[in-house]
Amino acid sequence: MKNFFFRIFFSAVSIIIVAYFIKGVVVESFPAAFMIALVLAFLNAFLRPILLILTIPFTILSFGLFLFVLNAIIIQIADYILDGFKIENFWYALLFSIILSIVNSILESIFGTKSKAEGND
């Protein structure tokens, strides 16, 4: 459970960083970024598997590039659900999702949410 909250915290920090650099993305505050991270985690856990199954043909035909579109759709759904989070259009959502995953990976590799002694839980 502690690992989950660290991941959400790193995601919130990543959201703030990425929103600062992309003009079409607005995040009002850190608590809003924390809520965005929670909603994105929820949507990725429950909605994304359903969307993946429904879009298997598109994903195969596009050699997996359609997964970027799914990520952008999930971010736009989060934009629709939450106040304090605004995405201008689909292209900003796509750019936001790509850069967010990169920044999140960098932060987790630097600070790490798992020690080497813990192993893979």
Report the uncertain regions.
none
Helix count equals: 5
Basic shape: globular
Give the count of structural domains.
Answer: 1
Radius of gyration: 15 Å
- Main pleated sheet: 2 strands, antiparallel
- Elements, N to C (H/E): HEHHHEH
From the N-terminal CA to the C-terminal CA, the straight-line distance is: 11 Å
Task: Give the total of beta strands.
Answer: 2
What class, by secondary structure content?
mainly alpha
Largest sheet strand order? 1-2
Give helix % range. Answer: over 70%
What share of the residues does DSSP label as strand, in percent?
Answer: under 5%
* Average pLDDT level: 90
What labels would you give this structure?
mainly alpha; two-stranded antiparallel sheet; 121 residues; single chain
